[in-house]
């Protein structure tokens, strides 16, 4: 049963990472849709970078920014009694960074796809910016947003490079499924890895299939 | 008369993201004021500034004694506080809501839910579309959508109505019906209504007074007979048909 522990941890990490990436990603995506946003293209480039940047480079930045010697790392340790790096929190941070660009891209496209006149209509009907966002903008962009969340979950579930750099590969603590598979292959236990490989593969394919369905319906409308 | 008039005196630079400047000064008493001018003359920009979707660089906008915008004093009342009904050219009905939910949307949040529903149904019935209450806009015909949009606009008892060419896609008969509906509502409520159009017949059928706008400037204000005389109706119609062809 301990064989499945890394997979269970992966699901836990992916859940929290997706939650964080969704909230942050939708807010950043919303800000990027504003034509008056200053430095929009630069922020877009920076937040998209994790998609193409080597995981070691991204991991390096996280270690510098959140490591035990950083201000954030020290503050976190003082508050919660444990560090961010080389803990499950670090694994969540790593998975969040990897999935954030997917949420931002999807959210931006979905939110920009909503007719701005509908938002203006909501405002003239007495809705403040928050009510207009929650009752009109968000529901009309829902399909694209859900697609982004599904991609983010699938991406978080399988993060390898940044997780290894930031959280390490500590069995029972930070060893996620992707890391466990790597270790099994290294120790010639291919058969033992097959179960987790099959689960991760299935989830990825299901997620992408659902994303295709969601965005296809949207195109038809 | 105690009914408040709308007074507008604004200067908007680089409107619509291009080299266009708008200078508009006019007043709109209760009744129908037609903002009449060719495409690109600044009509929609003026409406956007009045309702607060666009902030002018200078000037002032007031409804009676209530100041909505004053650049010099730094006053800017947010869109949602102005109590305006804006009917857009595209109608902008919320596609994910039923007709009743669309109409309820503009009603005060503090109103009881049952009261909101009753008011929405009453307005839909008044616009002769009560049977659409539970349906969504995707299933409406053009005329039905127009009626639901008017029901939504009038339901909150607005203090000012702005119409941005909502009749442009309608056939002549439907348009006549709507003009009668709008006219009836404005006469009863005694509020100012500003209607943007470049259709002379539509303007003549609705207007109490006309404001002519061209190239971002108000060129004349006056009665409909002075500024849009009936004798030109035929000429205007033939020109319009020619242009459309």
Question: Under the CATH scheme, which architecture of chain A would be assigned?
Answer: Orthogonal Bundle
Decide which structural class fits the backbone of chain B: alpha/beta
Going across the biggest sheet of chain B, name each strand in turn.
Answer: 7-8-9-3-10-11
User: Which quaternary structure do these chains form?
Assistant: heterodimer
- Rounded to the nearest angstrom, the distance between the terminal CA atoms of chain B is 46 Å
- Mean of residue pLDDT of chain A? 90
SSE order of chain B: EEEHEEEEHHHEHEHEEHH
Can you describe this structure?
The complex is a heterodimer of chains A (221) and B (245). Chain A has helices at 5-33, 40-48, 55-66, 71-80, 88-112, 116-124, 129-140, 142-157, 161-167, 177-186, 190-220. The model of chain A has no long low-confidence stretch (mean pLDDT 90). Helices cover 77% and strands 0% of the residues of chain A. Chain A contains 11 helices and no strands. Chain A is globular and about 65 Å long. Residues 237-245 of chain B have low confidence and may be disordered. In chain B, strand 4 (58-63) and strand 5 (66-70) form a beta hairpin. In chain B, helix 2 (99-105) packs across helix 3 (113-126). Chain B is built from 8 helices and 11 strands. Chain B has a 6-stranded mixed sheet, with helices on both faces. A 5-stranded antiparallel sheet of chain B has the order 2-1-4-5-6, with helices on one face. Chain B has helices at 43-51, 99-105, 113-126, 142-154, 172-189, 200-206, 224-227, 233-244, and strands spanning 6-12, 22-28, 31-36, 58-63, 66-70, 75-76, 84-87, 160-164, 192-197, 209-214, 217-222. By secondary structure, chain B is α/β, with parallel strands linked by helices.
């Amino acid at each position: 049963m301990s064989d499945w522990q890394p997979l269970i941890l992966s699901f836990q990490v992916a859940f929290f990472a997706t939650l964080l990436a969704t909230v942050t990603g939708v807010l950043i995506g919303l800000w990027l849709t504003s034509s008056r946003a200053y430095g929009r293209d630069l922020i877009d480039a920076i937040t998209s970078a994790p998609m193409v940047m080597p995981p070691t480079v991204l991991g390096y930045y996280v270690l510098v920014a959140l490591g035990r010697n950083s201000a954030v790392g020290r503050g976190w340790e003082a508050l919660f009694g444990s560090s961010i790096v080389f803990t499950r929190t670090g694994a969540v941070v790593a998975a969040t960074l990897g999935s954030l660009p997917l949420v931002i891209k999807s959210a931006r496209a979905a939110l920009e796809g909503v007719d701005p006149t509908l938002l203006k209509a909501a405002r003239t009907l007495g809705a403040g910016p928050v009510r207009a966002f929650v009752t009109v903008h968000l529901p009309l962009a829902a399909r694209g947003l859900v697609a982004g969340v599904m991609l983010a979950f699938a991406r978080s579930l399988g993060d390898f490079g940044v997780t290894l750099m930031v959280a390490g590969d500590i069995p029972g603590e930070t060893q996620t499924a992707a890391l466990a598979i790597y270790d099994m292959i290294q120790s010639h236990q291919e058969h033992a890895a097959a179960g987790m490989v099959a689960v991760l593969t299935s989830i990825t394919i299901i997620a992408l299939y659902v994303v295709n369905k969601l965005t296809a319906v949207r195109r038809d409308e | 008369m105690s009914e408040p008039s709308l007074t507008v005196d604004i200067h908007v630079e680089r409107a619509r993201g291009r080299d266009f400047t708008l200078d508009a000064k006019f007043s709109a008493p209760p009744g129908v004021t037609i903002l009449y001018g060719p495409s690109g003359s600044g009509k929609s920009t003026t409406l956007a500034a009045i309702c607060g979707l666009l902030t002018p660089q200078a000037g002032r906008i007031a409804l009676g004694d209530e100041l909505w915008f004053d650049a010099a004093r730094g006053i800017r009342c947010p869109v949602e506080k102005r109590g305006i009904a804006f009917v857009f050219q595209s109608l902008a009905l919320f596609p994910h809501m039923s007709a009743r939910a669309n109409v309820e949307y503009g009603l005060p949040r503090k109103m009881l839910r049952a009261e909101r529903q009753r008011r929405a149904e009453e307005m839909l019935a008044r616009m002769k579309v009560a049977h659409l209450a539970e349906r969504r806009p995707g299933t409406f015909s053009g005329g039905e959508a127009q009626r639901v949009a008017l029901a939504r606009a009038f339901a909150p008892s607005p203090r000012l109505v702005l119409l941005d060419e909502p009749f442009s896609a309608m056939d002549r008969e439907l348009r006549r019906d709507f003009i009668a509906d709008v006219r009836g509502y404005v006469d009863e409520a005694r509020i100012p209504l500003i209607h943007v159009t470049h259709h002379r017949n539509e303007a003549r059928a609705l207007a109490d007074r006309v404001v002519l706008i061209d190239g971002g400037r108000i060129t004349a204000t006056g009665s409909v007979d002075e500024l849009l005389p009936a004798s030109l109706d035929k000429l205007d119609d033939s020109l319009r048909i020619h242009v459309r062809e």
